[in-house]
Amino acid sequence: MSTPTKIMLDEREMPTRWYNLAPDLPVPPPPPLHPGTHQPAVAEDFAAIFPRALIAQEMSTERYIDIPGAVLDVYRLWRPSPLFRAHRLEKLLDTPARIYYKYEGVSPAGSHKPNTAVPQVWYNAQEGVRRLTTETGAGQWGSSLAFACAQFGLSCDIWQVAASYRAKPYRRTMMEIWGGRVYSSPSEITTFGRELLAANPDHPGSLGIAISEAVMEAAADPHARYTLGSVLNHVLLHQSIIGEETLLQLAKIGERPDVIVACTGGGSNFGGLTFPFLREKLAGRLNPVIRAVEPAACPSLTKGEYRYDFGDTAGLTPLMKMHTLGHRFIPEPIHAGGLRYHGMAPLVSHVYELGLIEAIAIPQSECFAGAVQFARSEGIVPAPEPSHAIAAAIREALACRESGESRVILTALCGHGHLDLAAYEKYLGGEMVDIELPESAIAEAMRSVPEVA
Amino acid sequence: MSTPTKIMLDEREMPTRWYNLAPDLPVPPPPPLHPGTHQPAVAEDFAAIFPRALIAQEMSTERYIDIPGAVLDVYRLWRPSPLFRAHRLEKLLDTPARIYYKYEGVSPAGSHKPNTAVPQVWYNAQEGVRRLTTETGAGQWGSSLAFACAQFGLSCDIWQVAASYRAKPYRRTMMEIWGGRVYSSPSEITTFGRELLAANPDHPGSLGIAISEAVMEAAADPHARYTLGSVLNHVLLHQSIIGEETLLQLAKIGERPDVIVACTGGGSNFGGLTFPFLREKLAGRLNPVIRAVEPAACPSLTKGEYRYDFGDTAGLTPLMKMHTLGHRFIPEPIHAGGLRYHGMAPLVSHVYELGLIEAIAIPQSECFAGAVQFARSEGIVPAPEPSHAIAAAIREALACRESGESRVILTALCGHGHLDLAAYEKYLGGEMVDIELPESAIAEAMRSVPEVA
C-alpha cells in the first residue's frame, strides 16, 4: 500500500477562494427569467428573498471569489475534509482500479451541506438579516442551516417535508439542538400550506411545497430572508471547495482521475466535486470522464426535459432553464430523500446539454447493496444519497476487473448514514423495493410547466 | 487565533506501540483472583474465553507493546484522530482558559471503542478463532466489534441489554450492516438468560447479565472466544493510543495541560486518554491534575467500595479488585448507557486509591446542558457519555473566568451523539430528570459481593 489511506491537507492548505464555472464555459448558461414577464431576471427580482451579496454571486461572471475569513474560521471545524484511498473496497472487489473518495461526513451536520450553509448565513448576517427560513427533506440541509445559524446568532425556521417530519424525528431533534425551529410542511402557517392541508390533512408534502412555504414566510418578513441548499449557482459556487481540495490532495500523491462519479439531486454535491475538475478538463490539463448518478425513481437528467420551469411547487421562484420532471412532480418516497427533487441545477443541466458530462440512473436496491459492501470494507456507513455514487464506482471497478485496466476512479461520499439507519433496516430485512418510475406522473407534471418563448 | 482549530497528525506520525501503565506504578496493582479458590488467577484461568496473546497483554509488565501492522492498517481508516482547540466554546463561555478536546467520533462506529475492537479481533483471528461473542449496552461496543469482525472475516454474536435493544433499534441495524447478529439480553439462548426471563419476561437486562450470557456462549464453543470492550488491562492498553497521539499533538503546539477531565464508565476512555499523561506526571515531565468524571446515578469511584468483585452479574469472571457498587447492582436507565456499569477498571481504581487521580460525579441534566452549549459552539453533537467530560471541562473553564487564570484544559470527546438523539429530545422537551442515587439499592447489591481474605 504505497498510497496512504487518507490524504489530508493541513488547515493552512485549505483553499481560500471558491470557483465559479460559468465564465469558463464555451457557451454561457441561459439566464433565469422573471416568472411574470419571462424576461431575464435582474437582481431586484431576488431582493425580497436573498441578500445582495448572494444575488451578486448568483449572477457573477468572476472565475474566483474569496472566502470570507469568518467563513474560513467555521470551515476549520471540519475542513479540509479527508480524501480516502479505498484500499479495502478495492481488495473486496478484487479490482485493479484505484478508488478514491472525498468524505464530507466529517462536518457537524454529517454532509457537504454546511459548506454553503455557513457562507449563506454569514452574508445574511452582514446585511442585518436576523432570521432565515428554508425547507428540508430528510433533514441534511435543515440541520446544516441550523448549525450555521447557531454559529452566527441568527434564528432559523425550517419547513420539513411532512413525510420526513413524521418518519425521521431524530433529524428534527438535531436541528433543535442547534436552536432551529422545525415545522411540518405543508403547515398551517402559510396560505399555500393551509390550502393543501384543507384538501388533504395527511398530505405527505414535497420539497417543492416546503420551498414555497419558506419563500412565502421570508418574503413577508423584512428581517427575514430565504436560503436554498442546492440548485442555485451560488450554492454550487460554495461547494466548489470540495473539488478544489480534492485537486490538491490528488496532486500530493501524483494521481489523475480517469473517471469521476458523483450523486446528484439538486446538483450541489455533484457540482462541488466535479466543476473544478471540469475547469481542468476544459483547460486540457486533465481528461476525466465525469458522470452524474441519479436515482432511477427521480431521473431529472436522464428522463426529464431541458426547459424553463419553476424551482418550487407553487411557482413563486424565477424560471430556470433546467432538466425537470415538472415542478408539480412528487417523487416516490425513496430512501435517498436528498435526491427527491423535480429539477436539476441549471449549471449542471447546461453542462450536460453541452456534452461535458454524462449521466446515469441507478435503482436504490443496487445502491444499498453497494453501501453495505462499502461499510463492511471501508467502515463508514454511507448516507443513501452517496450510495448512488458508490454503486456507480463499484460498476466502474468491476468493469476494470473484467478489462484488467488500472483506472483511477474518484467519487464523493457526501455524507454518513447515521440518521438513515431505518432505510438500512428495510434493506437488510429484504423489504426494500425498487420503485417503478411513474412515467404517467411525469407526463402529468410536465403539463404544468409554463411555455416560454 | 494563533492555535489552529484542529491539530492533526499525519498517518506516518501515528504511534506504533501501546503503553502499559502497570510497570510504571509505585505499587503494583492487585492481581485478579480465581473465583473459586480466591488465589491469584493464572493464564489458564482465562484460556476458555480469551486468546493467549490477549491474556499475555492482560498480565504484561512490559511498558510498551508493538501494534501489529494489520491493526495499524485498519486504524488508518480514521486515525490519527484530531485534537481540537475549542476556540468557539471558549468564546461562548468568555473564559481565559484554553480548552482542547481529543475527538474519537471520527471512527466508523463513532467512538473510541474500535481502538480495542480491532486488535482484539485480529489477535483472535491469528489463533484460529472463528466466532466472537460480546455484550453491549447502548451499542457502541457491539457496533465496534461488528465493524472489526467485518474487517477480518469473523462472525460476531452480540447480547444487547434488553432495554437498549428495544429503545435503540438503529444501533442494532448498524451492527447488522457490519454483519453482526444481535440478541436481546436476557435471551432464551443461555441457561442464565432463560432463568431470568422465566422470572420476568419483560426483564430490562443489564451489562452484567449480558456479559454473563456472552461468556457462557463463548465457553461452550471451542471455536469461539469472548471479548470485553472496557475494564480489563488489555483494553486500556489498546486505548492508550488516544493519549499517546494527544501528547504528540500538544507538543506540536507547545501546550502542557493543567487539568485533564475524562468520563469514565468501565474506564477505557479515561485510561486511554490519561495514562500516557500519568506516565509523564510520574516521570516529572508534566504535572496535570487528572480527574475522572462519572454519572451521579452510577458513581462507582466516588460512592462504591474498593474490593474484590465479579465483572458480571452471574459471577463467572475472575474476581477483580476495583471500585464497585456490587455486581448485582442494576443502574437506573440514564441516557449515558456506556457509563452504566457497576464496577470500574482495576487499573483506574488502583491509581485512584494511590491518589494519582481525582474523581467527581455529575448529574445528567448538567451534562446535557453542557452538551448543547458545546454543539452550538463547536458544532459536534456529543454522545451522552462524553457530555460528562464536557460538563466538567465547562466547570473548569468557568472557574478560570472567575479567577482570571489561563489554564489549559484537556478533555476527550469519545464519541458523537448521532444515535442518541432521543436523549436530546427528552432534554430539550424538559422531560429529563436527574435520577436520585438509590443508596439502598447499592447497600443491597453490596451484600452479594464475596468476602475475600
Structural notes for this entry:
The structure is a homodimer of 453-residue chains. In chain A, α12 (268-282) links the parallel β10 and β11. Chain A has a 7-stranded mixed sheet, sandwiched between helices. Chain A has 18 helices and 15 strands. The first copy, chain A, has 453 residues and is α/β, with parallel strands linked by helices. Chain A folds into 2 domains: 7-14 and 78-110 and 234-446, Rossmann fold; 25-65 and 113-231, 3-Layer(aba) Sandwich (Rossmann fold), CATH 3.40.50.1100.
Could you give the topology of this structure?
2 copies of one chain form a homodimer.
Chain A: E1 6-7, E2 17-19, H1 43-46, H2 52-58, E3 64-66, H3 69-75, E4 83-85, H4 87-93, E5 98-103, H5 114-126, E6 131-136, H6 140-152, E7 155-161, H7 162-167, H8 169-177, E8 181-185, H9 191-199, H10 207-219, E9 224-226, H11 233-252, E10 259-263, H12 268-282, E11 289-295, H13 300-303, E12 305-309, E13 320-324, H14 346-353, E14 358-362, H15 364-378, H16 384-403, E15 408-413, H17 421-428, H18 439-446
Parallel strand pairs in A: 5-15, 6-7, 6-9, 7-8, 10-11, 10-15, 11-14
Antiparallel strand pairs in A: 1-4, 2-3, 4-5, 12-13
